[in-house]
Amino acid sequence: MYSKIIATVLLLLTVAPAALACTGVIVAQGGSVIVGGNEDWTRFDSYVWAEAATEEVYGAVYLGYEIRGEFGPRGRHWFEFQGVNSQGLYFDTFGAPTLANPAWEGKPPCQEHIEILMMQGCSTVEDAVSLLNAYDLSQYRQYNETVFRSNMQFFLADSTGTAAVVDGEHVHWMENGYMVTTNFRLSNPSLGGWPCFRYDVATRMLEEDATATIRRVAEILDATQFPCAQGYASCTRYSAVCDLANDVLALYFNGDFSRFAELDIARLCDEGLDRVSIESLVAEAAVSESGSPTDTADSETADIAFVLQQTIQGGWVIGDTALQDFDGDGDPDLLCVCRSGGSFLLWNNGEGGFSEPDRTDELGSFAFAAVDDFDSDGAPDALVGDFAGAYEIWLNDGIGGLAGHALPRRSGAASLGSGDLDGDGDLDVFVGTGGAANFLWINDGTGQFASVGLPASADTVNGVNIADLDGDGDLDVVLGRYSVSNVIYMNDGTGSFAVHTGALGDTHSTIGLASGDFDLDGDADLFIGAHDGADSVWLNDGLGQFRDSGQRLSTGWSYQALAADIDADLDLDIIVAGGNFPDSIWLNDGEGHFTQSTARFIGDQGASVNVGDLDGDGDLDIVFAHDPGMSNESKIYVWLNVAED
């Protein structure tokens, strides 16, 4: 009978100045050895790559980031945060309070990546410890990282069930039972980082169940992650769990443990792998909620499923997007209005994929867009604006050529919405401003606009939604505001508005708004997406009087939302672009009650969302555009609906 060894090492990394964190876990029981970790960071661009074995070196799989100056003056280079080699040796690097290591004195500096040397030449934890003890690591890699290396520890494990933490000159070996540490030094907890909630959580979970499975280790990592949705600057960007005895590597992205990519460690060590984004790898490998790679049980049946068709990114910053048939070929194209880097069109190939950005028309940089047929020729046009008060009308020639015409400067835009606001049969634009007087662009029917002033807003208007709220046949306007209550502008049919304050209670801090008949009673209800707090659903009595349904949906920054029948059951669902939580779908039961879909999406910097039948199969697909955050490169995700009829 195998002896039972259960060990867990939880490693929370908090290293100034880059605010790092990680969590590592090993559980060894009988012949099973499961090891894994969360890696926390301020960026999303994490990668996996592999170097193939040769006659001279072992093959290895690496996980990490492209460093862009965070750790010293060297600039951009690749940093291996975790790795596992063909011999079953695993490492994770993590931080702890600064501790000098007198054992380094007199030893030669390491001139290469110590992690790579370890993976290429070591097969056991004992080998790795000997390698680490052979060098002065305060100066290795020549990155001028003396302070950083004084904050560094190594977590090591191998397929025999041996594990250790190399803590400066101290080596803490795994023993029978379990061992838990976070970001304090095992050799001297008084240096800082103790007590720690993750230490307590992990200890309690292991006391209850220390099963050596990928599922159980993933549950512990899930319980000890820093959720990005709670606003942490450095949060759990990716997680990895290895079955060292069976050469299985499971990857999770952005703290979402319902989706994973499963990799064959032995194959990667034989064949090698070019650097691949963990985000895209997980998205391509898993299209709906599932269990775990090696011990999948009765997973929940997906209510609707999507597959990532395409990811588009570049040196531009998305402000707004619109999905319309700009070239008149029968499928929807994507207009990308960019705050920097210039705006452009993406052409649909008819199969759900898009072209590279088309910059033929040299469209400028703007932040907001209202897209409609403003000159009544049957083709979609766009009225765009920016924070500084510049506006243009882009008129479509019917085959996708957009000609820009400047409009007079006005107060800076914070949100736009379009509709026939004055009842004359053409489409106008409502401009919500950053606290100045809101106004209308009134259309003469040919795409020529004149501005008409409206009452000033008491605060920035983050969201504009246009619908007939009181059932009188004209279009009213809902304004989402930040620090003061949201407000409704009731239209008299001529474009004159009465301001109704308090109609939506004390809802505020609102960005994403969506309207539609959620409860199928014939009037327009409202979804109010919060920037701080939880999203809510307000039901209309048919006369423009609203009551809070009591539902609280996503909690976080709901930057944009729309209502559409995404699951084809004849009621309106809600699709949300999450600013600091993953994009999401809320499914309607037909009575205005919403539950979150099992469909999961990657990333959590959503700026806009559009739906349309991209591939011509009769169902609605989704395009999410994400704000770049720290990377200065926006991303566009094209998701095809693959739910069965």
Q: Helix/strand-derived class?
A: mainly beta
Main sheet: strands, sense, barrel: 8 strands, antiparallel
Uncertain regions: pLDDT < 50 for 5+ in a row?
1-20, 69-76, 141-148, 287-292, 294-301
Strand content: 35-45%
Q: What's the rounded overall pLDDT mean?
A: 84
Helix content: under 10%
Number of strands: 40
The end-to-end distance, rounded to whole angstroms, is 52 Å
Whole-number radius of gyration? 28 Å
Spatial order of strands in the largest sheet: 9-8-7-6-5-4-3-13
Helical region count?
Answer: 7
Shape: elongated
3D structure, described in words:
With 645 residues, the chain is mostly beta strands. 9% of the residues lie in helices and 41% in strands. The strands form 9 sheets. An 8-stranded antiparallel β-sheet has the order 9-8-7-6-5-4-3-13. It has a 5-stranded antiparallel β-sheet with strand order 1-2-10-11-12, sandwiched between helices. It has a 4-stranded antiparallel β-sheet with strand order 14-40-39-38, with helices on one face. The relative contact order is 0.10. Residues 1-20, 69-76, 141-148, 287-292 and 294-301 have low confidence and may be disordered.
Strand and helix map with partners:
Blueprint: E1 21-29, E2 32-41, E3 46-51, E4 60-68, E5 76-85, E6 90-95, H1 114-121, H2 125-132, H3 146-150, E7 152-157, E8 163-167, E9 170-173, H4 197-208, H5 214-223, E10 235-243, E11 248-253, E12 256-264, H6 265-271, E13 273-277, H7 278-285, E14 306-314, E15 317-324, E16 333-340, E17 344-346, E18 368-372, E19 381-385, E20 391-396, E21 402-407, E22 413-419, E23 428-433, E24 437-443, E25 449-456, E26 461-467, E27 476-481, E28 487-491, E29 497-501, E30 510-516, E31 525-530, E32 534-540, E33 546-555, E34 558-564, E35 573-578, E36 584-588, E37 594-596, E38 606-612, E39 621-626, E40 634-641
Antiparallel strand pairs: 1-2, 2-10, 3-4, 3-13, 4-5, 5-6, 6-7, 7-8, 8-9, 10-11, 11-12, 14-40, 15-16, 16-17, 18-19, 19-20, 20-21, 22-23, 23-24, 24-25, 26-27, 27-28, 28-29, 30-31, 31-32, 32-33, 34-35, 35-36, 36-37, 38-39, 39-40
Helix pairs in contact: 1-2
